[in-house]
Amino acid sequence: MLLVLAGEPNAKNEKDGMFQRIKWVDEQFRDVPRVILSISLKRHLHRKRFVRSDFLVVEEVNLFMHFPRILYLAWHSDCTYVHSCYNALGGLLVYFLGLRIVTDLHGVVPEESRLMGATWLSQVLSIVERIVAKRSVALVFVTDAMRKHFMSKYSLSDDTRTYIVPIITRESRRIQFSGKDQRLVIYAGGLQEWQRVDQMLDAVKRTKDKFKYVFLTADLDNLRRKLDARGMMQVQVDSVPRDVVFEYYERASLGFVLREDSIINRVACPTKLVEYLWSGVIPIVEQPFIGDFFEMGYKYILVHDFTNGALPDPTELDSMREHNRQIARRLEELGDAEFTRMRKTCIER
Fold first, then answer.
1. What is the pTM of this model?
2. Is residue 159 packed enough to be buried (19+ CB in 10 Å), middle (13-18) or exposed (0-12)?
3. Residues in contact with 63: Cβ distance below 8 Å, sequence separation at least 6, in sequence order
4. How far is Cα 296 from Cα 334, in angstroms, rounded to an integer?
């Protein structure tokens, strides 16, 4: 049996990048008997158990009320797959039992928490991250840049237990580029500090009526407040199911993915950026050093050039789209191969 420490992906959280990753990984284990164990420090005071299929069971437990159950499931599993340090926190003692644990890091969560102003949580997650790095039988990273960061930060010398599985998206592979609206610019994602939404809106304001804009986010009220404060009426805002997002991608020509130059972004593999590359949406970036994409040679437009009207002609844009799709395809091939290798480590002895 495979034990997975994570929340269960569902229709309510399908827009969240972490849960998209959890869902994709779970699909790769669909033929393996497994339990998704959601551990809460505050909620789930009464244990709940849901049988989703012959292979999948979901349990919701509280760390303090159901600690024996957590230990029982971990001890009777062939391997435990942990999604990020957030979920490792709830199951931290499991790392000290000498069991087979694979940790999918997702990102550099102590730095992310610090950026959001959660200093105390950042300190706790730093401790969790160190334990995870030292005691996992395998570590899964979304970029090679993230792998190098952890190898250096924790003086890890055995890179044979590390795997690079980029964010992989299947939905947008069949999108055709012929229906692009050259004036349509999209943003699809959250409003967290590192998304640089204020900088996007500044760029929208400076370009005035030269483009059409659509922002898709689950946090509609917050976005509307930002737009009202700027007196901006030219931005279409909506919150749509994940499958509908790709209908917008099919029409959009350009897409915002503004990230400042920081360790968070240098090691990241943003879901939306991968989707942009597959969908023929040319990324508008503040700076290009995001994950492994710059080294792979992805094509982009600097936001400074965008706001000043220094854009490639339509023929060159189409060439950039094809080039970026090839990079997305390489990422997918890399991820599939690495996951196959890691899966053997996880469930085959």
1. 0.92
2. exposed
3. 39, 40, 41, 70, 90
4. 12
189 pLDDT higher than 80? yes
Q: Which domains does the chain have, with CATH numbers?
A: 2-136 (3.40.50.2000), 181-329 (3.40.50.2000)
| Phi/psi-derived region of residue 98, left when phi > 0, alpha when psi is between -120 and 50, beta in every other case | left
pLDDT digits (tens, 9 = 90+) for 198-211: 999 999 999 978 99
- Degrees (nearest 5) of the Cα angle 225, 226, 227? 90
Backbone angles phi, psi at 96, to 5 degrees: -100, 10
Sign of torsion over alpha carbons 188, 191, 196, 201 = positive
Phi then psi for 100, rounded to 5 degrees?
A: -80, 110
What's the first-to-final CA gap in the chain, in angstroms? 13
Confidence of residue 173 (pLDDT cuts 50, 70, 90): low
